[in-house]
Amino acid sequence: MRTGFSAHGRIDVSHIGQVFVAEVEGPWNEELTKSWIAQLLPLLTELSHAGPIAGITVFRRSMLFTPESLQLMKRAAASGAREFPIVAVAHVIDQTVEGADLMAPVLAEYDRQLWPVQRFAHFAQALRWIESQLALQRR
Question: Distance from first CA to last CA of the chain, Å, rounded?
Answer without folding.
Answer: 56
